[in-house]
Write a structure and sequence with these properties.
Blueprint: E1 2-6, H1 10-21, E2 25-30, E3 48-52, H2 53-61, E4 73-76, E5 78-82, E6 88-92, E7 102-106, H3 107-119, E8 124-128, E9 132-136, E10 141-144, E11 149-151, E12 154-157, H4 164-168, E13 173-189, E14 196-200, E15 207-213, E16 216-224, H5 232-247, E17 250-265, E18 269-270, E19 274-276, E20 282-283, H6 291-306, H7 314-343, H8 348-363, H9 365-375
Parallel strand pairs: 1-2, 1-12, 2-8, 5-14, 12-19
Antiparallel strand pairs: 3-7, 4-7, 5-6, 9-10, 10-11, 13-16, 13-17, 14-15, 15-16, 17-20, 18-19
Helix pairs in contact: 1-3, 1-6, 6-7
């Protein structure tokens, strides 16, 4: 089939690569310049993804991981969460006899590796610095702002929360703001950082650490709108208050913040020839770092659904894809909402329920092992 993937980010590039490997002819339309035109820096960018074990194995099978700079990937072997009342629950790779639970990967480094592989694919055409102007769904023709007209059997919308494909396909959205912002800051430390990621909940919102190297980390602090620091000195003061007891002295390298929003498309496909993946289909609370993992799971489900499909049977393949991924993504979104509101609650009953649940998980080994398997993408 002739497939156009709109959006060349991590999920879009992975879609194009996986679809090409499955035997399709793929054109990627990316609004920005090719990531290959920029030179990676030694310093980590603040846009980082936690990629779980199953998706790492999938990316490895696609030949992508070998192209990721070794300096921009950091495996972690344990994950811990602490409630507002101090109960702590820890998951370790050793509990399910695997070497790691996943890895932190710089988004730019992963996108660079994906495009490196795309460039080598004869079945892939890369169109950069252009956007979609219109799509004729009946004639199955897409026109770019540059005037190029492309015929297609399928358009994959991988162009983010404000997806042009969703808009042109008439797919509505539903969502809300959490009225919170997420502060991200990369730091270097004097003391060594273990290969572990953790999150501590407060009534005002959680704070967390992502390991990057033995002496570098990404610090995350969630706060209500209007309470986030605005200047570098305010950022440093906020981070010192929350993290000094955990990591000792540190130097602030770079920082930024963004608002939190939950959003989902009302449907994942339209017109018998359009389908959404990644943030175009769902934007999730970044609490557990599941955003890109859900996007990669979308891609794998789509490729599987399209196996053996023809332009005449796409609707059936889309229905299969939508049913599977809509249900899975909704479960994850609801779980993140429960964690977000439950773990930070000031009310007694939710806190008692969480304390009891964490105690049960810590004591019931099979149940804890099952949760670790879910966290690594193997379920």
């Amino acid at each position: 089939m002739q497939i156009i993937v709109v959006g060349g980010g991590m999920v879009g590039a992975a879609s194009a690569l996986a679809l090409a490997r499955a035997g399709h002819q793929v054109t990627v339309i990316e609004a920005g310049a090719s990531p290959l035109e920029s030179t990676p820096t030694e310093q980590w960018d603040i846009r980082i993804s936690s990629v779980h074990r199953a998706n790492l194995d999938w990316l490895d099978a696609l030949g992508v991981l070998a192209s990721v700079s070794a300096e921009k990937i950091c495996s972690y072997s344990s994950l811990a969460v602490q409630s507002v009342d101090g109960q702590r629950l820890e998951f370790n790779a050793a509990d399910i006899a695997v070497p790691t639970l996943g890895a932190m990967i710089e988004n730019l480094a992963l996108q660079h590796a994906l495009w490196h592989r795309l460039q080598a694919e004869s079945a892939v055409t890369l169109q950069t610095q252009t956007t979609v102007e219109s799509i004729d769904w009946n004639q199955r023709q897409l026109r770019t702002v540059d005037g190029d007209i492309m015929a297609f059997d399928l358009v994959v919308g991988a162009d983010g929360a404000q997806s042009s494909v969703a808009r042109l396909a008439g797919i509505g959205q539903r969502g809300w703001d959490y009225d919170m912002r997420c502060l991200l800051a990369n730091v270097t430390t004097e003391q060594e950082i273990p290969a572990a990621t953790w999150e501590v909940f407060r009534h005002s919102g959680p704070y967390a650490l992502l390991p990057l190297t033995t002496h570098q980390a990404c610090l995350i602090d969630y706060a209500p709108q209007g309470q986030h620091p605005q200047t570098e000195s305010e950022v440093k003061q906020r981070l010192e208050t929350q993290f000094r007891s955990h990591i000792g002295d540190f130097q602030l390298q770079q920082w930024g913040h963004f608002p939190l929003r939950r959003q989902r498309a009302l449907r994942y496909h339209a017109h018998g020839c359009a389908v959404l993946v990644g943030d175009a289909a769902h934007s999730i609370h970044p609490l557990a770092g599941q955003g890109v993992n859900l996007g990669f799971a979308d891609v794998q489900a789509l490729v599987q659904a399209l196996q053996g499909a023809s332009p005449d049977t796409l609707e059936r393949a889309f229905t299969e894809y939508s049913q599977q991924r809509f249900s899975a993504n909704q479960r994850m979104m609801r779980a993140m909402d429960m964690i977000h509101f439950g773990f930070s609650s000031q009310h007694l009953l939710p806190r008692l329920a969480i304390a009891s649940g964490m105690k049960v998980l810590e004591q019931v080994t099979p149940l804890k092992r099952k949760l670790i398997e879910l966290a690594t993408g193997y379920n």
